[in-house]
Amino acid sequence: MRVMERTFREQLFLLVLCLSVLKGNSRYIENNDISRDELFSLFNSQLKRETPEELIYRRPLRCLDMIAVEGEFTFTTENPQLSCAAFFMAEPSEVISVDLDNVDIDCSGGDFITVFDGWVMKGEKFPSSHDHPLPVNERYVNYCDTGALRRSVRSSQNVAMVFFRIHNAGSSFTLTVKKHINPFPCNAISQSPEGSYTMVIPQQHRNCSFSIIYPVEIDISEFSLGHSNHNSNNDFPKRSLPGCTETEDFVQLLGGRGLDTSKLLTITDFCTSFTGATHMKVGCDNTVVRIVSSGRFVSRVTFNYRLLDSQELQTIKLNNVEDFCFNN
């Protein structure tokens, strides 16, 4: 079995390496010459250090970059850079704003800077088109199309990205990245391989996903639809096989190798409110808890998760989830 215990840095390294052909304007992104050592250097301690509130953190922006802090990031071209992407991440309860300043590029010559509301990797999007409040075409904001009218873009969740293509030496632009509290977070990617989280949908007809890009043990301790439970605390949650297609409100546990939740395997689903522990070990690169809500109830799910070690992964290598994740 090829799965090994991975750190967050290593998981993101694998994800970024999957970046090859992106949809929409990102069709221009191709392979680049970023080395493995250069990519690992994106995650050094300086990148993640805390800075006093009165100071603004500044550093150059790389052609391939991962940013998890607020600050100003300036890109200046020394040579043509035709396939660049910067990934931004905040806490699950935050959203990200990206402001473009001091832009000096040649739009008529084929340059572009595009902000995407979410992440795109290998043609797959997070959040998926089924879970995001905006249609796909509205999630792309191209500076060359909008100019000063859309210098600032705010994400709908805790991840966003900018991809760009610059031809001429000396061309440059600056990104100002800020984080903002999201009072009703919906979709999110976890920064950590362990933690706890509660997703709440306040009577809205929408879908929310929480993505954990690690193989994990997950403990779903509560699922509530805002009405009385039909199960006692000791009952296993009611499940309608082969799924919850007959109900409008349910929770799914998904697993797979990509970002798009619509392409992941449904491991199990829960259709009836319950409290009590439901433990599962999922050996996939991406584990997702997803709520589907009709908007008639206040939907709520609470869960804990932790990274599986290599020995635990060995013990589950023959189950169906493992086979699905790594043999298909």
Structural class, by secondary structure, is mainly beta
Strand order of the largest sheet: 1-3-12-5-10
Main sheet makeup? 5 strands, mixed
- Overall shape: elongated
- Helix-residue proportion: 10-25%
Tell me the total number of β-strands: 21
Instruction: Average the pLDDT over all residues and give the rounded result.
Output: 79
Low-confidence stretches: 1-9, 16-51, 228-242
Number of helices: 7
Our Rg estimate from Cα atoms comes to 21 Å
- SSE run: HHHEEEEEEEEHEHEEEEEEEEEEEEHH
Summarize the structure in words:
The chain is built from seven helices and 21 strands. It has helices spanning 8-17, 36-40, 45-48, 136-139, 143-146, 310-315, 320-327, and strands at residues 58-60, 64-67, 71-76, 81-89, 94-104, 112-116, 119-121, 124-126, 140-142, 152-154, 159-166, 172-181, 188-189, 195-202, 207-212, 216-224, 250-256, 265-270, 274-282, 286-292, 298-307. It has a five-stranded mixed sheet, with no helix packed on it. A five-stranded mixed sheet has the order 2-4-11-6-9. Strand 7 and strand 8 form a beta hairpin.
Short key terms for the protein model shown above:
328 residues; mainly beta; five-stranded mixed sheet
Question: How do the helices and strands line up, and which of them pair or pack?
Answer:
Elements: H1 8-17, H2 36-40, H3 45-48, E1 58-60, E2 64-67, E3 71-76, E4 81-89, E5 94-104, E6 112-116, E7 119-121, E8 124-126, H4 136-139, E9 140-142, H5 143-146, E10 152-154, E11 159-166, E12 172-181, E13 188-189, E14 195-202, E15 207-212, E16 216-224, E17 250-256, E18 265-270, E19 274-282, E20 286-292, E21 298-307, H6 310-315, H7 320-327
Parallel strand pairs: 1-3, 2-4, 13-15
Antiparallel strand pairs: 3-12, 4-11, 5-10, 5-12, 6-9, 6-11, 7-8, 14-21, 15-20, 16-19, 16-21, 17-18, 17-20
